[in-house]
Amino acid sequence: MTRSDARTHAGRARTGSTSVPTPRRAPAAAVAAPATVLHPAVVDRLTASLAAGRSALVVGEAGTGKTQAVAQAVERLRATHDDLQVVHISGTGTHDALPLGALEPLLDDPAAAFGDLAATLRSLATSLEHRRGDGRLLLRVEDAHRLDDASARALDWLVRQDSVQVVATLRLSWAARPPWAALWKDDVVERLDIGPLTREATERWLATELGGPVTADTAHRLWRAAGGSAMRLREAVHDAVASDALEQRNGTWVWRGGQQPRSRMLDLAELDLHGVSPQGREALEVCAVVCPVALDVLLDLVPAPAVDELVLAGAVTTTTAETVTGGTVRVVDLTTPAYADVARAWIPASRQRELLQRALDAPVARGIAASSLIRSVSLAIDLGMDVPSARVHEALGAAFAIHQYDSVVMLATGALASAPQGPEAAHLHALRGDARVMLTQLADAERDLSRAAELLAEGPFDVATVTLLLHVADMATLVAHRRLGDVDRALARLEEVVRPLREADPVLPVLRWHDEVEVTRLTRLGYAGRLETLDAALAALEGGAHPARRVSLAPPTAMSLGESGRLHEAFALCARFSEIAAAHEDQHRWGRGEVLVAMFFTLLWSGEVEAVRASLAPTADDAPMAVEWSTVHTALGLLAIAEGSWTEARTHLATARARFDESDLTGLARYSLTAEAVAAAACGDTAAARDLLDQASRTAPGSALAMEGDVAVRRLDALAWLRSPDVVSEARALARWARERGAARVELEALHRWVDATRRTGGQPDPALVARVRDLGAVCDGERSAALVAHVEAVAAQDADLARIAERELNRRGLWLPPQGAPVALTSREQEIASLAAGGMTSRAIAQRLVLSTRTVDSHLSRVFAKLGVHSREELGNVLR
């Protein structure tokens, strides 16, 4: 570069942002900042630091969003500093270039500077001063870990001399190396660390990127595929959209699967490995086959310096894990599967088998990445190797743990090809059947479970085979119930599977299997809504069946208790079996999720809305429990209804509907459609509400007849918002039905809607009706029941003020009644905000709930006041009621 070239760069810098080329590629940093904020807290802190004149290091693993965070912070800084000049440089491709290669474009006279460090530093300082002019100068460094040593030392000196303000991105593996560690240790720069993307952040980004909501299973699959990397997430979405693996249903993005094209992540991985030495590449080939593997095993295969190089390059990572014997071991694993895909293409199959055998013979370590274990075992099976049964089951357990049910099917299918017929094959069929249940492949699951039952029926019977057969019987009964929607036919299937045990019973004193079968029978009857079996179920929960088996009976029993109004007992039962389910998760994988669903409804029926929200909060490790994905969206929609957030409720329930369109595994489609009708009616979309009610009436109740009473209550609420004259007659019929079956809570809800509908037509409730409400209030637990009784009594007393107070308590307990007057021409958002304001919420609280600014909420309220002709929230409450 000549002196005139350097001056041209300097002159360009004074006009705005400069992108300085590096020896091998132009930095991607010149691209505009993305709109979606992946790491808002980091961006806020970084913006504040830069605005205060501080230099900063943004540290994280490859692809975690460091560049995006810096871009967003710089754009915010530009918005408040018109005189800001930004100069971009990148360390990519400079390791094997000339010393100071990354900074050479900044030098006024490179020829005079090289060879004399002092002259170089003076030239850099002078050049930066020229670029700064009368404004501010920010030097933005991408991939600072790739800078040559001379450039890194020069930057260190410039920052310490306060000659330039720097914001640099740096790999985590280099943060402890000079000069970067010393800079933040000496408080010369601020260090901001960016961790992997959480599942929650991934869902937010996907909804923004795709322009619509994403089903929970789709978000979870993409989050797992990305491994917490923002870059890999972006590429995974690109590949899925390009291959039509993602499609929109009802405005919601749903994963449909299919053949994936060559991922662009492979190109990025190849680029990332460009500077790795031949020794490092050979080490990566080994890691691609054997990882995850104990460090001492790996060091028998490759030299330690090569492993260190891969760690510094960000290709592999080391963690401490427990061994099966209770000790600890250092485990090496690849940071992304893309490195393995690239490297394995270079290795012959014979070499892969040789390397894998070394890894398979090593002790199994707990705590290693599940996806890596699955990958290595799958590769060994594909290569026709004899994989130890223990390692196969470790991989199967890992796949279940991270909800990769398609991986379970793949691994079990591969293992079955060489497994001997007998208990081992039966176990693999059972595991594959379990996975296919969660994939909603019920016909295939039924075939797997039938084959497992056939193999086990041949005997001999011992504790292990009987335990497995009882599990198969339980799952086969569940599949039959869900496929047929007929509990009697499902129980007939149960008898078919356990018939060999009955025939062998005289010589089978190995366990109390009769108790286990009874638990399965009562579980199905409970989900079928047979309240008459409640006492038997409570007795069985204290009986001799294994605790893991009793976990499956606890949820329908808690639901039956809740329907009967015994909500305190129901909650205590859920709390007790939540701990039991956690302790036996290896034996009943869906136990925690099933108990969580029962606890959710128990809290919802009790009116404990805040506790409901807490129960749905993301877990610390972002690992969801094993529940059917549509249930997650239905629960979020019901929570939004309880909070009066109608638009949010419609979004979640429409997302659930997109999943139910594919398969109704839980039998909750009818319930979810009815709840969505309530939200649509509350938003003023009467046509959609009526259509949803019609869809719900044509949807079979399936295996969730236990929810039919609550479905009917939701239907009453939808009819009330639609101002249908049928509310009274349907409420009367529901109350009679509930009384006949002993469903006190459902009867109380129905009688309340009857009284409220009578009030809206100008009538007065029958005193006998009010007396019955009082009687039910005495036997039904929970704050919501108390609020229902208080509202009925206020209405019966014709005390408008007391009724208004009681209705606000109902709002707090999750019930929002429609306005009493004629419909007003409010938008759905205005109606939503008006309802919340009438319920006593402040503008700030409404803004937090609906993810709006307080100013936006106040603007909506101003328009509502103008439309309704009111001047205060108190008047608003009067008008809406």
Structure, described:
Residues 819-881 form the HTH luxR-type domain. Pfam families: AAA_22, GerE. Residues 1-26 are annotated as: Disordered. This is LuxR C-terminal-related transcriptional regulator. Keywords: DNA-binding, Transcription, Transcription regulation. With 881 residues, this protein is α/β, with parallel strands linked by helices. Among the domains are: 3-194, 3-Layer(aba) Sandwich (Rossmann fold), CATH 3.40.50; 199-261, no CATH class; 269-418, no CATH class; 421-510; 828-880, Arc Repressor Mutant, subunit A (Orthogonal Bundle), CATH 1.10.10. 62% of the residues lie in helices and 7% in strands. It is built from 43 helices and eleven strands. The strands form three sheets. Strands 1-3-4-5-2-6 form a six-stranded parallel beta sheet. Helix 1 (3-13) packs parallel to helix 5 (117-132), helix 27 (567-583) packs antiparallel against helix 28 (591-606) and helix 37 runs antiparallel to helix 38 (783-796). The longest helix has 22 residues, at 463-484. The protein is flat. Residues 1-35 have low confidence and may be disordered.
